[in-house]
Amino acid sequence: MEALMRILTELRPDVDFEGNKELVDGGELDSFDIVSLVGELCEEYDIEIGADDIVPENFNSVEAIWNLVQKLQED
Amino acid sequence: MIENIKIPEKWAAEIAQNISGGMRTNFYISTQTLFPFIEEGRVTCQRFPGGSYFFVEGEKQIDLYFFLEKEKKLQRLPDFPKPVVLEQVAMEKADVSPTAEEWQAIGFQPYLKRRRLFLSAKNAPVEQREILFGNETDLPEIIDLMQESFEPYTSALPDAETLRKDLREGRVIVAKENGILLGFLRFGREKKVSVLWQIAVPKVGQGKGVGSALVRDWLALERAEVTKFQLWVREDNPSAWRMYEKQGFLPDGRMAPVMIKKKGL
Taking the model in full, what pTM does it have? Predict the structure, then answer.
């Protein structure tokens, strides 16, 4: 989780991630952020994120991103 | 070898795999947006060791999307009968990779550069304005004005049907004097962000504050419904920059250099 927060704040230091449940739907993270984030997450956590998982619901909050990482680590 | 992309789902999976693998790319659009183009046979691909190019054929140009592993080199492109356009969104503080020089080595030339500006809705002025919406009778004049005012390849100009729909649904604000069009502003929504797509003021309207008035109309109209306002402005348009800054817009650190490879280079 700590590494995830570091990745997110480095990517977008201007965004308040705590408690935000609409990071994508609210327009805080755009497709450029998502592409950068997916690459970083895969490298950090040694996972592969498939096309079906690159959807707004999985990136709308820190918790959703963390759940996705955990799910893919278990696979 | 150029291949036609035929199976959208397979293509989406390949792209996700490339992104997961941390490849360098300018592919920042959803694959869903491009699915209809695949059905129309407009998407082709060239694969090479360490990377791939995807070409999306438009009316006037071919848009290039690339995936390239770190340390790998760009390959020469096949010849196309239309200019090939490459838009590479990046953070201002980070280096663009591959660099402009690397693209130039395979025949591209710098074309233009845009920066993104934003304004939080809570910082937009609260004001009552009398807003004049365009209607369908303005369509031909707005199309002519768009074609005169914007470069043809990367301005995301709408086709006539899209513009007609926007006019009907109140997404085009106009300024007029004695029935003569002095300018228009077309906007849209991306989630909870209001995006200015095009604004243009013909010679007859210039020097009268028409552009600022249209922007203020847009802010007043959308303020209560969105979290922020966003637009891209060309670096070589300082008067537009000043106008947006006066309204409170700030750069958000995104820039988008555009390179072009003209036919036969």
Answer: 0.90
**Which residue from B20, B29, B253 is facing A38, i.e. has the nearest CB?**
B20
**What is the domain range of residue B86?**
2-112
Q: How many CB atoms neighbour CB B176 within 10 A?
A: 15
Q: Which of B68, B94, B112 is the last residue of a domain?
A: B112
> What DSSP string runs through B138-161?
GHHHHHHHHHHHS-SSSS-PPPHH
B9 contacts on A by Cβ (under 8 Å)? 51
- CATH number for the segment(s) A2-9+21-74: 1.10.1200
Q: Which residues of B touch A54 (CB under 8 A)?
A: 16, 19
Verify whether the Cβ–Cβ distance A35 to B192 is below 8 Å.
no
Query: Do B79 and B187 sit in the same domain of this protein?
Result: no
- Report mean pLDDT in 10-residue bins for chain B, 265 residues: 89 92 89 88 94 94 95 92 94 86 96 96 95 97 96 92 98 96 96 96 94 98 95 95 96 93 75
Centre a 10 Å sphere on the Cβ of residue B62 and count the other Cβ atoms it contains.
20
Closest chain A CA to residue B31: A51
- Helices A31-45 and A62-74 pack at an angle, to 10 degrees, of 40
pLDDT of amino acid B264: 62
The enclosing domain of B211 has a CATH number of 3.40.630.30
On whether residue B263 sits in a domain, the answer given is no
C-beta atoms of B254 and A50 within 8 A: no
